[in-house]
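Researcher: Let's do a round of design. I'm pasting the structure tokens now; please hold your answer until I've finished.
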């Protein structure tokens, strides 16, 4: 089901733990169909709208559906089911209905799938109240966050970068305990600049932090892990100390980075502390090309992060 196969193992464990969890996907493992049966494993026709609508209805009856959309781009096909129903029913029913469903999908990968399939739309859903938006930066965190997601009572959008599958430590990932939503991970500590890296770009941030350290520049590297709820406090504390902020994301700067920056500007005194010392290393605001020669220019690179950080260090 998932491009990060270890998540399948976690979901399998969670399905054994809670019989209310059901899977709706266009492709399902045959061993699961044997173990859990057709009532809990639904192999669906390729109709994302039907799958998601079925998931909303199942959640309203007390089940806990996991709907696998495969590619994150396909969330745009089901905006009515998600934005107008899954995210709103609890509010519109005065708490009479809950929609404890998880929608999983893969974001950008180095697969040259073109502008319709290589997208990171999580910033869009940060603008739609009612969702929890999860974007893990490591396989271990993905496993812990998935355990939390299937146990939560509200709708969760779970975006996973295919890059997380590289170098996965299987035992550590499977052993990951549920991670509370809204708790960022600080991957390195420093006093010169704050780097906030999202999802698949976290490893770019890790490499950039090492390069900066070799030049005598220390940075706070923060992985938000969940964008809604967002751990504003952790990021704000770091920015108060460093006075400089760099966003790194596989998606466009007008997406999640812009949403996070907006939330930070609500923190008293933080905008003045930054004084304009904010940088972005993101995909340009263009459709992602399918041609490798062009696509390579849309990925955030660690040297770009280093260059932006050093530029901010020179700024008054």
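Researcher: That's everything. Go ahead.
Model: Designed sequence:
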């Amino acid at each position: 089901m998932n491009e990060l196969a270890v998540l399948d193992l976690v979901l399998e464990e969670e399905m054994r733990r809670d019989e209310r969890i059901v899977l709706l996907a266009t492709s399902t493992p045959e061993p699961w169909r044997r173990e859990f049966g057709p009532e809990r494993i639904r192999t669906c026709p390729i109709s994302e709208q039907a799958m998601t609508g079925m998931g909303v209805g199942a959640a309203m009856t007390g089940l806990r559906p996991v709907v696998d959309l495969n590619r994150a781009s396909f969330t745009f096909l089901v905006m009515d089911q998600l934005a107008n129903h899954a995210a709103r029913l609890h509010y519109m029913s005065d708490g009479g209905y809950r929609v404890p469903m998880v929608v999983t999908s893969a974001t950008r990968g180095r697969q040259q799938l073109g502008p319709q399939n290589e997208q990171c739309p999580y910033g869009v859903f940060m603008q739609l109240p009612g969702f929890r938006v999860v974007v893990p930066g490591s396989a271990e965190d993905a496993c812990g966050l998935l355990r939390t997601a299937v146990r939560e009572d509200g709708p969760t959008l779970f975006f996973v970068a295919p890059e997380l599958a590289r170098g996965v430590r299987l035992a550590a990932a499977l052993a990951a305990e549920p991670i509370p939503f809204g708790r960022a991970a600080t991957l390195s500590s420093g006093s010169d600049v704050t780097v906030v890296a999202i999802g698949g770009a976290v490893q770019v941030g890790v490499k950039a932090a090492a390069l900066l350290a070799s030049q005598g520049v220390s940075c706070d590297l923060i992985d938000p892990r969940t964008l809604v709820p967002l751990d504003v406090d952790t990021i704000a504390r770091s920015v108060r100390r460093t006075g400089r902020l760099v966003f790194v994301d596989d998606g466009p700067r007008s997406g999640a980075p812009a949403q996070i920056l907006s939330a930070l500007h609500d923190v008293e005194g933080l905008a003045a502390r930054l004084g304009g010392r904010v940088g972005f290393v993101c995909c340009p605001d263009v459709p992602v090309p399918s041609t490798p020669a062009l696509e390579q220019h849309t990925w955030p690179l660690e040297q770009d992060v280093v260059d932006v950080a050093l530029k901010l260090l020179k700024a008054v």
